[in-house]
Fold this sequence. Notes:
- By secondary structure, the chain is an alpha/beta fold.
- The protein has 2 domains: 2-194, NAD(P)-binding Rossmann-like Domain (Rossmann fold); 291-424, Rossmann fold (3-Layer(aba) Sandwich), CATH 3.40.50.720.
- It has 18 helices and 14 strands.
- Helix 1 packs across helix 3, helix 11 (260-273) runs antiparallel to helix 12 and helix 12 packs across helix 13 (329-339).
- The model has no long low-confidence stretch (mean pLDDT 96).
Amino acid sequence: SQSQREPIAVIGTGYVGLVTAAGFAELGNEVWCVDIDASKIDLLNRGEIPIYEPGLAESIAANRERLHFSTELGPALEHARLLFVAVGTPPTYSGDADLSAVHAVVDAMPASDRHALVMKSTVPVGTGDSIKRAFATRGKDGFRYVSCPEFLKEGSALADFRHPDRVVVGDDGDWAGQAVVDLYAPLGAPLVRTDIRSAEMVKLASNAFLATKISFINEIANVCEETGADVEEVARGMGLDARIGEKFLRPGIGYGGSCFPKDVSALKLLAGNSGYHFQLLNAVIEVNELQKRRVIRKLQKHLGTLVGKRVALLGLAFKANTDDMREASSLVLASRLQGEGALVSAYDPLAETEARKLMTGVDFADSALGALEQADAVVLVTEWAEFKELDWKAAAERMAGTVVIDGRNHLDAGELAAAGFTYEGVGRGT
Ligand code: UGA
């Protein structure tokens, strides 16, 4: 049956593009990947993977014969009807999505009655309609358009592809929408087939809701600190209510990454531009900013002034199992610490190369213990598994001070107390 699978093209070999390409290659589809970045294509053709994602290199290697990488659009157009668009839509300074890469793809399309763009990149509601208008005014109205938003999470992206909670397909009820539905059919996921604007909104609303859930539990954690309740117990008790659900109730130092901060402000702006003031999202954003800064106050509570104090950051990536530093809370934290006069050392098992591009004046160490050398305090920023395994007795001997601020409630409070540390987590009383 593999020979009957529809060949597809994927334009943009970043995070979403590569995972989508690998996922469909696993299902037996020929996948024609296109990227304007020749060095990335060279890398991929040499069998190297430009991003870190568990299982991705193995999946690409195992399905190599069905994956084609090129900077040329021609072969993709020749072999595939469906062209998945997975180019970046980074935030602009004002918080809008920068659609220049999407527009470049649209402009590169020829007039055709047998092709469709399938939008995976996260775009504002109405983008599909404006692309269709652009096609129409250029005599390319035979080109179909499908919105097929992506919900995968970094660190578990391939598993998310293989077992999606749902597949959302927004289209005009034409062959292209049906072809995308058929493409995903083997995954057996619940399908939401709808209009293009609604599909675009599902993506923004889902990310905004999850961000809201995180800001909510962060505020509950803050109240727990004032009232002596333990937010971990509270979240457990809340999460068992099926209407609430246990996921995304982990308090911390604020959400980061390439999606939540961008998509929350994009939805807020989209609403504002259409005349609706989305009140809740203002608070979600503000709480997230304040949450990063609370760490500074906790440090000051234990250390007094931070001038000349050495603070070690354990983990820098926006979450564990990724080298992604986009909108990582560690960036704000480090610069605030430096602003307070502290010396900052840091260790991340994977993100150091990315972090070095974005941080200045930070002393990077090769190991967690190395970062703790002579530190007055430690802040656990990213929930890497290896920090749980750290020899905290050895850590205590290397440090100048005894303060551990656990930004993720990741460490064993009892073990740290036994090793002589003053431990403070998030929302666990004081
Ligand atoms: C997020 C969504 O979860 C995906 O469904 C979506 O496809 C993706 O954005 C996207 O729009 O492309 P991702 O950014 O990879 O995925 O990361 P998440 O695992 O969702 O975490 C986002 C941030 O929230 C991280 O900083 C994480 O540490 C934080 N978080 C998450 C919490 O602070 N508490 C939680 O309980 C969960």
